[in-house]
Amino acid sequence: MGYRSDIVIVHSFMHKSHAKEILTAFTLDKRCQKYDLTQYLKISCDETQTADGVRGVYSLVFVGEQWKWYEDTMLGAYEDVKCINSMLDLCKDFHKERGIPYAYKFLRIGEETNDVETREDSSQCKHGEFLEDYQESSAYIHTTIEQDFRNLKSVSEGLTELQGDKVEGLSEPRNIDYKEWISWKKQELLNKENNNE
Fold first, then answer.
1. Is residue 144 included in any domain, yes or no?
2. What strands, in cross-sheet order, belong to the sheet with 5-13?
3. How much is the pTM?
4. Of the candidates 121, 119, 103, which has an alpha carbon nearest to the alpha carbon of residue 58?
5. Is 22 in the same domain as 112?
6. What is the pLDDT of residue 46?
7. Nearest to 159 by CA among 170, 149, 148
8. Which residue of 66, 69, 70, 117 could cross-link 5, Cys pair, CB 3.0 to 4.6 Å?
9. For residues 104 and 72, what is the distance between their CA atoms, to the nearest angstrom?
10. Claim to verify: residue 131 and residue 172 sit in the same structural domain
11. Same-domain status, 58 and 131
């Protein structure tokens, strides 16, 4: 039991070797192994057009559904959550010590309708800004209403299918104009109301 969230957390880099270094350092964390966090981690290798030509973008993407994502509890954050969040700290450290540019994006949707959270960070350099722009179009929250009705048709299409069927109140099957049918139904309801008075 407990409150659950869906999450996507993206760490993007300009070079494959940078993504590999961060991933290697992350997997050395004992919590990563204890909670088998690499099963939720995906790697994306993409190319995008820039003014300077085509550039590669390499991203480490956490995808989790129905996660107990507790960052702030009386006892502190859950250990698996702390470990996943530590990848951002690795990015910051590698940028500070070695100049590796990065961008970070955190997206979380909770069980409640208005429980949506986003966070972003980057190395605040030319490449970090480029990676932020890339992430902006690659990871975002989009809410929709889903429906699963089958064979939905407009009223006019549905009434046209009645063509040839006997319709209550009409003596013979014929082509039905939906406006005519609606008008007829309104009159039928008015007649019923008048008879009940």
1. no
2. 41-50, 53-67, 5-13, 103-110, 116-122
3. 0.71
4. 103
5. yes
6. 93
7. 170
8. 69
9. 20
10. no
11. yes
Q: Is 146 within the bounds of a domain? A: no
Determine the residue type at 114: N
CA 147 to chain centre: 17
Q: Domain total for the chain?
A: 2
Same domain, yes or no: 30 and 94: yes
Copy the structure tokens of residue 122.
């980057």
Phi (first) and psi of residue 50, to 5 degrees? -130, 175
Looking up tokens 């100049």, which residue turns up?
99
Mark whether 119 and 190 lie in a shared domain.
no
Residue 124 lies in domain? 5-138
- Residue-wise pLDDT for 12-53, tens only, equals 999 999 999 999 999 999 999 999 999 999 999 999 877 778
The reply to whether 162 and 99 lie within a common domain is no
Q: Which ranges of the chain does DSSP label H, i.e. alpha helix?
A: 16-27, 30-34, 79-98, 126-138, 155-161, 178-196
The residue written with tokens 């270094």 in the block is: 21
Q: Kindly state the DSSP code that residue 124 receives in the 8-state scheme.
A: -
Residue 63 lies in a domain: yes
DSSP letters along 125-161, please?
SHHHHHHHHHHHHHS----------SS---HHHHHHH
Q: How far is the C-alpha of 38 from the C-alpha of 184, rounded, in Å?
A: 65
The confidence band for 180, taking pLDDT boundaries of 50, 70 and 90, is confident
Residue 143 resides in a domain: no
Task: Enter the tokens of residue 11.
Answer: 């760490």
